[in-house]
Amino acid sequence: MPSSSFVCLDQKSDIGLSDFMQQHNKICGVCGERMRRNGRTRAGRERFRCMTCGISNTIHRADTRLRHERDRLVAWLTGVDGKEVVAKRYGLSRRALTKEFEPFFRENPSHMPPSEYHASVLILDAKFIHGGDLCALISLDERDRLFWDFATDECYGTWYGFLIRFNQPQVVVADGEKGVTRFVRRFWPDTAFQRCHFHMVKLIIQYLSRNPKEKAGKDILNLMYQLKTVKTREERERWILLFKIWEKQYAWHFKTKTESGAYSYWKLRSVRNIIRRALPNLFTYLDFPGCPNTTNLMEGWPNATIAEALRRHRGLHVSQKKILVSIILSRLTREKPTQKLSPEKHT
User: Fold this and answer.
1) Alpha-helix runs per DSSP H in 164-232
2) Are residues 44 and 181 located together in one domain of the fold?
3) Does 291 lie in the same domain as 217?
4) Are strands 121-128 and 36-40 parallel, antiparallel or unpaired?
């Protein structure tokens, strides 16, 4: 899949540059004789004239025109002004500006890593941009390099098509979506996996609410809130011990059934099973200095910027949203990059 043409929007395109160099020694298209400079037009363009047949012509650089059209598209999509205001600023009508943008919306806006790309930490997340019908699969590494692709759903198949192009990193940080974990387990067996603490707490709240009625629910929710305080291996062991004590203290909740045979506290059972499965991947960051324990950088930087841009441009159709997201991601920069991961695992 080719890379997005919007990744280097600020750089001049080389399209038509060879034609431009040839036109400095412009040849007449009628008689084939060499043309000479003959002043400038009212617009300020250099005019050429054939001394044999009298034909006049000017230089038309396709790369300059294309660059200006992209600049106008970026000004509209990344700014706060509407299309009418942008068109007026450049001396165009709204209809002319709309027609000018149409070829860009037919381009492939994905941006995939090159074959020589290597990263120590990969933060992975999917951002839905068109209801539940379209999402952007985004990766962010320790050097703030972003790569993305678009898919109709967040599942194993779509993550496979995206991640199979990456070289194996040291650590993957994700929200626990099954497609990512399955891919890492199958194709990157030597890669450590860090489960996002924020998404873990959010998932527990979905089962128990923020104010559980049962004391068992209140205790486990308070224990989940303490995840952010775990900074050392000793604190990790203490947290795991508290979880095991909670399991033993409320063991009868997990066995109690109703007259129909259903579990009375099935939500507590689900919470216990979720934490059990996630426990091996909850504290990976302690073994890899610099590795984050959440995907907050992804949520608060690319995802938040995309959400704000989509809010300003409500009503775009699918292809336009893809180009918008591609432009936003290609222009993102931060003053303070993420802390670089140490290449050696702490033992």
Assistant:
1) 178-187, 197-208, 215-225
2) no
3) yes
4) unpaired
Dihedral over Cα of 202, 208, 211, 212: its sign? negative
pTM of this structure: 0.78
How far is it, in rounded angstroms, from Cα 9 to Cα 342?
33
Q: From CA 197, how far away is CA 279, in angstroms rounded?
A: 11
Burial 185-198 (b: 16+ CB within 10 A, else e): eeebeeebbbbbbe
Per-position pLDDT tens, the chain of length 347: 444 545 544 444 444 444 544 445 578 878 888 888 888 888 777 888 888 888 888 766 667 778 888 888 888 888 888 888 988 988 889 999 889 888 888 887 889 999 899 999 999 999 999 988 999 999 999 999 999 999 999 999 999 999 999 999 999 999 989 999 999 999 999 999 999 999 999 999 999 999 999 999 999 999 999 999 999 999 999 999 999 999 999 999 888 888 888 988 899 999 999 999 999 999 999 999 989 999 999 999 999 999 999 998 888 889 889 999 999 999 888 876 555 555 556 65
Handedness of CA 71, 77, 80, 84 (dihedral sign): positive
The domain in which residue 240 lies consists of: 121-330
**Total of domains in the chain:** 2
How far separated are the first and last CA of the chain, in Å rounded?
A: 40
Query: The CATH number of the domain where 26 resides is what?
Result: 2.20.25.10
DSSP helix/strand/coil, 174:
strand
Which of 9, 30, 60 is the last residue in one of the domains? Answer: 60
Strand order in the sheet with 146-151: 146-151, 135-141, 121-128, 171-174, 192-195
